[in-house]
Amino acid sequence: MVNAVHHVEVSIVILIVGSLVSLLFARRRKLCGWVSFAFVCASSVYTGLAVAGACTVASGEHSILSLPQLGSSLTLRIDPLSAIFLAIVAVIALLSTLYSVRYMEHYAHDKVAKFFPILLLCVASMTGVLVCTDFLFFLIFWESMTLTSYFLVTFESENAASQRAGLKYFIITHGATLCMAAAALLLWRTSGSFSFDAIRQTLSAMLTARPFLANAIIFLFFLGFATKAGLLPMGDWLPDAHPVAPSGMSATLSGALVKLGIYGLIRLFCSFLVVSPSLKIWGIILALAGTGSLFVGTLTALRQTDTKRLMAFHTIGQIGYICLGLGVGVYCLDMYPALATIALAGAILHAVNHACFKSCLFLGAGSVLYRTGERDMDKLGGLAAFMPYTTGTTTIASLSIAGVPPLNGFTSKWLIVAGCLLTGMRFPLFLVLGLIALFISLATLASFLKVLGSVFLGRADENLGIKEVPISMIVPQVVLAALCVLLGIFPQLVLRFVGHAIEGVTAMPVAGVNASRMWGGLFLIDGSPVAFWSPLAILTVLAVLALLSYAIQRAGGARTRSVPVWYCGEEHAAATVRYPASSFYLPFKHAFQGIYPSGKVHVPKFPAPLRRALDFDQWLYRPTVKVIDTAADRISRTHVGILQIYLLWIVIGAIVVTGILLWVRG
Amino acid sequence: MTVWLIKSLLLCLLNVAAALFLSPLCEGIMRKLRAAIHSRIGPPIWQPYWDLLKLLGKEDLRSTGGIVYASLPAFTLGSALLLAALIPMGTAAPLAFAGDMIVVIYVAAMSGVLLMLSGFASASPYASIGSSREMMMLLSVEPILAIALSVGAFKAKTLAVGGMVNWQVQNGPCISMAIAGVAFFLALQAVAGKLPFDIAEADQEIMGGPLVEQSGPRLALFRWAMWVKQLVLAFLLVEVFFPWPHLGSYLIDLIATIVKVLIVLVLVAVIDAVNPRLRIDQALGYYMRVAFSSLAALAFAVIGK
I want to staple A416 with a disulfide (CB 3.0 to 4.6 A). Which of A292, A346, A620, B289 is the partner? Predict the structure, then answer.
């Protein structure tokens, strides 16, 4: 199955070529976008072929470049786990590029030459990260991914907030990369090789021989991946970077890029580490970190009034869910393999689902920004009348992220929470974590009802001149919303491949999740069937009951009449009596005040002597200039502009020259 | 397979019909009781039926257009009835294969969510305030339901609601389930939207909150959905936490269950009749304390009591 790897190579090459070609067309905004889109399309087709070839069994390896002196080689390989993440990257990249073609008109002052070529490079490096089997090249791809995304975050060169956020992103993620590089080098010192297989062996040998060092290395890797994934507190870059990036990029960041951190965590804990009792501690650490993130992230999101910032905080929250599932899975790997597969399946499925709904939400927020130029929810309202498609897709995605059955967010949350509760029956800590996850799911709902209620629903003042966005921006949103519904009703479609991925990574059969039936839905097995969820049956019954209710509603044959809103007899403009987003849930928000400490970081003072030493102006340039200046000034005094004086100088000069000559001869 | 399908469909129909047609009666009884406590004669217990019938024939005034807004009441009642099909009401839960306790918790929140959406969509500031309050009540009440049910799950080692009932029947009462049941009961007061927790509707304050712009058949469906939900959750409380005396005779058990449900609803009505409305922040504080106290049930369950 070398073919699959070749397809990915072709895809990466297409992206790099595309990046150069789109640079040629950079003068013309739309053309540049469409050219980039064509290249991303082609590369996505190839990635899709690769995914199709490797989604059930791992592909063969293909070595491109070998550096035996370093113990490293650029060897590519796709296994079912990377296939899933490759699929996410390909789909999200395709849709957000299509979206950006028209969206980038929003930025009149900045050239698209700074956007599309770099976006393509970013996608290429994400693809590279996923297929690498060698840590040196993994880090190279990782770093290029970080750099390109840094440039995309700081796209708006005139915007100070975007530059600040970019700098924060740059510093934090480079700290993380340093951690990973340090960990890889520590392992390399022992084994002399960067390849994943060697690292796996070294790490497992080290865990028994030098457990302290081994755990320190695992911690460094954890820090690196968790920072990229956006787990708090390392993910503090995320709420700043997402809102300022162009919306297509926000969608890519949240939908695909932060997922690579999750990919790394899954690789690290499920594949690099041998199953041993010490994994339990890491499982608990992961689960606690995840719960912390989802709790703090989501409740902070509830307080936001900036649409994109709110969604960025939700990314932290949802990554927390994934990490919680992962933690429970890692905890159970050793003793309860069936439960481990439930939680891991939940985590991976949630990563897929999150890519669908969160990208859709960011694109929706982008559409609102594109048409109204506004991200502040307090100033928006009643857009449903003008932007029906954006409203529809955002509503579906919002209900999906909140886990309203039978949309896709519910299935993965169900798996994660069920995994928590079932594991909690053995180790009660997880029971509490599962309950927190359930509660936060409601807080997510509250937060997105606020978005829907204040931005889209209600009524706007007439004649605002707002239109629906162009079709090339609607299509990506509709596709993502359709995916939310489709994967919600048929989670089996994805769970099959998730099962292969888990089998591939942990070398364990997926014993806990039965997703073979269509109507009967999913059930979880822990000895006996213990949890049930059938989206198709629930949806059918709900549809039938809703129809029945509608029949009841129409039974009386009541006439319908359209009336204005009743303001207790007074007349008001809709906008003046609108319930603003900042007023939602005030008492509740007061209860959770200060949960996300936001202090201004003061830049440390530069030591004064060093600053003086480095200040060449002060001690070198200015004094030199001054000396030369005064000298020139003095000389210039001789030039007085009177002919006789010049003649006198000439006479004196002649006498002096004659004197010197006489003195020399004599 | 076909027999099983027909059986579960019939059960489904039975549960839905019971929830649909008994819930106004329960509301009628509760009204009558409240009137008795207030020393009034009160409306006849059939009054809710007449209310619904009358509303179904009234003119439907809409402040907002659109097909989604038009379909919201039907989905609200539909989701409340779906909840009825997911839980055991005197018999085994008809759709037990399709949803466990986590699904029940989410579906229980669904009708509230749809009500809030129609509140926001109706463009009235009163409706928005009411919806915002409704969401806060949901935020404080649903965790209690979740904690209570997870105690049952912990005891029975299964997430299926039917499994919890069976475990209770076999093993008899225990401290943790009793505490969880009390917590569930306290939460029921707010789920049913009764005083002192009818903060979201608060007729004297914000004129029905999310319902302020609803009239005619739409109002009928929303009201009906709330009554269905209160009855169904009372059934859930009785079945999971107080399933005794289980004599094995189907008819007697059914009658006992209905009597117990009526007792629960009467208690709710009494609390409703003798209390003033709390402010939203007071209610939040109250339920936060209830939630933390109900963790005690979990602690008892962990130590095996």
Answer: A346
